[in-house]
Write a structure and sequence with these properties.
alpha/beta, Rossmann fold, four-stranded mixed β-sheet, 3 helices, 33% strand, GTP binding, Small_GTPase, GTPase activity, P-loop_NTPase
């Protein structure tokens, strides 16, 4: 069988979204300016699992993005001025659309 898993990765500028996704990549990850979508194939228990990471910025968010994914990964940098306010914003946005 084949399984498709989609993750939406959101967060503020320079929060580390690409760095988080690069942990799952088999190849080097280009900057998000060049690539906002990446897919990796994994064999898990003899099954093909295609994992897609959709990296998004606040100014690019579209409500449809939330409905097309299985999970949302919120990336917040502790170096941001108010990291928990940013976290709360993304959780609020996700709840509005998925409710």
């Amino acid at each position: 069988g084949e399984y498709l898993v989609k993750y939406l990765v959101v967060g503020g500028k320079k929060s580390g979204k690409s760095s988080i996704v690069s942990c799952f990549r088999k190849t080097d990850t280009p900057s998000t300016a060049k690539q906002l979508l990446c897919t990796e194939d994994y064999m898990i228990g003899g099954e093909l699992v295609k994992i897609t990471f959709w990296i998004s910025k606040r100014e690019q968010m579209q409500p449809a993005q939330f409905s097309l994914v299985h999970a949302i990964i919120v990336v917040v940098s502790i170096t941001e001025q108010k990291p928990f306010d940013i976290y709360k914003y993304w959780i609020s946005e996700a709840r509005k659309i998925t409710a």
